[in-house]
């Protein structure tokens, strides 16, 4: 029996998505930039997907930039904006992000800071992994140009208050404009540079509204393979007033924002996946949460010396993140996979080959030694209570085996499950 509990890493492709993509591999294989009929068929498919996506995300079709995934979209949002602002004469602007962002946001920002192209503020989070709107308000400076805060955390499932944070940004922008407009014409100078808000929403569309207008954001990144679509296809939705500069050059695709032959099957699949996720969002959220809550209940009742790291009152319904104290997470993962065919994770798949404690867990105030036993269960729409029953035939024994091998369990003599938060 094979059971998959790692949907934050990737999801199996929905059969309806595969069906929608199928004609564009062989039958309608044209390059969407070609002007003959083969290219025209591909271009129509791209245009239809773009229009479908734009309606869901509450932007214009021309405000969708197709990418290879959210990593590229995040890099385009950050580096593209910094380079675009340079053309306006804005050098070394200030950017604000959070301590629990994906590396696809933090690494570009850290690189730009190291190169002295930006100054950077990294906001802390509370024990639930949530950014404070007041902390954001306090961090904003006259030279702030971008706030980038993820929608749903990929490791523990915390949901950020994006609308509340975007309200803070709007208030700061309104204050900038008001102060400028009150100056005399001779004193005003150029109109002040406003702050843009970007959100990496990769983990969100299966369960949460991603409309840019509803969220109050200017840019939003998505990946198809996180919502039962194909790998290698994603997007950046960007409001028309954001001055981006392309990262890739050598063609005139995507209105000069992203050079490269369009991935027609991937774009079609992305459009279908987002449409299905939106259509079934409420139903799937209820179903997945019920199975996730059953998983938590079983672990709480049947296992000891466990810390629940997912804030159940403010979370994605798919996530259940635990620290199994006194055992190594990697060992648990491998044993479940090899002995029972059950796939789980120790954290973000993009960082799973790196050593060291999770920066997300550390930012939440979790002790270093407690991060070593971290296991992330992320459920999907096909998981059932029977999957949980099968897991619990193996998990307690696996954890016990590795605890028994540990040299000293003195710090972990307490019984029962602890909610970290």
How is the topology of this model organized?
Blueprint: E1 3-4, H1 15-21, H2 37-57, E2 64-67, H3 70-86, E3 94-98, H4 103-114, E4 119-123, H5 133-139, E5 144-148, H6 162-181, H7 185-188, E6 196-200, H8 212-215, E7 219-223, E8 234-238, H9 264-279, H10 281-302, E9 306-308, E10 319-324, H11 329-340, E11 342-343, H12 359-363, H13 368-371, E12 374-378, H14 385-405, E13 417-419
Parallel strand pairs: 1-11, 3-4, 3-5, 5-6, 6-7, 9-13
Antiparallel strand pairs: 2-8, 7-8, 9-10, 10-12
Helix pairs in contact: 1-9, 2-9, 3-4, 5-6, 10-14, 11-14
Helix tally equals 14
Structural class: alpha/beta
Helix content: 40-55%
CATH class of the largest domain: Alpha Beta
Write up this protein:
By secondary structure, this protein is α/β, with parallel strands linked by helices. It folds into two domains: 3-8 and 281-399, Alpha-Beta Complex (Aspartate Aminotransferase, domain 1); 15-279, Type I PLP-dependent aspartate aminotransferase-like (Major domain) (Aspartate Aminotransferase, domain 2, 3-Layer(aba) Sandwich), CATH 3.40.640. 41% of the residues lie in helices and 13% in strands. The chain contains 14 helices and 13 strands. It has helices spanning 15-21, 37-57, 70-86, 103-114, 133-139, 162-181, 185-188, 212-215, 264-279, 281-302, 329-340, 359-363, 368-371, 385-405; strands at residues 3-4, 64-67, 94-98, 119-123, 144-148, 196-200, 219-223, 234-238, 306-308, 319-324, 342-343, 374-378, 417-419. Strands 2-8-7-6-5-3-4 form a seven-stranded mixed sheet, sandwiched between helices. A four-stranded mixed sheet has the order 12-10-9-13. Strand 6 (196-200), helix 8 (212-215) and strand 7 form a beta-alpha-beta unit. Helix 1 (15-21) packs antiparallel against helix 9, helix 2 runs parallel beside helix 9 and helix 5 packs parallel to helix 6 (162-181). It is globular and about 75 Å long.
């Amino acid at each position: 029996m094979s059971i998959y509990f790692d949907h934050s890493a990737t999801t199996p492709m929905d059969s309806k998505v595969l069906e929608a993509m199928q004609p564009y591999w062989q039958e309608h294989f044209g390059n969407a930039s070609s002007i003959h009929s083969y290219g025209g068929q591909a271009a129509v498919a791209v245009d239809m997907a773009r229009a479908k996506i734009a309606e869901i995300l509450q932007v214009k079709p021309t405000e969708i930039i197709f990418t290879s995934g959210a990593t590229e979209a995040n890099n385009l949002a950050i580096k593209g904006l910094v380079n675009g602002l340079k053309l306006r004469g804005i050098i070394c602007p200030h950017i604000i992000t959070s301590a629990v962002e994906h590396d696809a946001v933090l690494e570009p920002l850290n690189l730009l800071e190291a190169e002295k192209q930006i100054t950077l503020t990294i906001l802390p989070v509370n024990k639930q992994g949530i950014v404070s709107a007041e902390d954001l308000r306090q961090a904003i400076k006259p030279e702030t140009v971008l706030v980038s805060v993820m929608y749903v955390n990929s490791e523990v499932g915390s949901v950020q208050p994006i609308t509340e944070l975007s309200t803070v940004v709007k208030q700061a922008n309104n204050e900038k404009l008001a102060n400028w407009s009150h100056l005399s014409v001779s004193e005003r100078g150029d109109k002040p540079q406003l702050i843009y808000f970007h959100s990496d929403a990769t983990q969100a569309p299966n369960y949460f509204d991603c409309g840019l207008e509803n969220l109050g954001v200017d840019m939003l990144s998505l990946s198809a393979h996180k919502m039962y679509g194909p790998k290698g296809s994603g997007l950046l939705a960007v409001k028309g007033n954001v001055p981006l500069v392309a990262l890739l050059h050598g063609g005139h695709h995507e209105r000069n924002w992203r050079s490269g032959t369009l991935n027609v099957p991937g774009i079609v699949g992305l459009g279908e996946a987002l449409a299905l996720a939106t259509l079934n969002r409420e139903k799937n959220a209820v179903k997945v949460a019920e199975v996730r809550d059953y998983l938590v209940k079983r672990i709480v009742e049947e296992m000891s010396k466990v810390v629940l790291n997912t804030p159940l009152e403010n979370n994605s319904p798919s996530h259940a993140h635990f620290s199994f104290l006194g055992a190594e997470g990697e060992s648990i993962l491998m044993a479940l996979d090899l002995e029972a065919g059950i796939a789980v994770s120790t954290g973000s798949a993009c960082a799973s080959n790196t050593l060291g404690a999770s920066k997300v867990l550390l930012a939440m105030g979790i002790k270093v030694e407690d991060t070593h036993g971290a296991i992330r269960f992320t459920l999907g729409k096909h998981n059932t209570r029977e999957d949980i029953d099968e897991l619990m035939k193996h998990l307690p024994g696996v954890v016990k085996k590795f605890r028994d091998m540990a040299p000293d369990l003195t710090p972990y003599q307490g019984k029962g499950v602890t909610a970290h938060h």
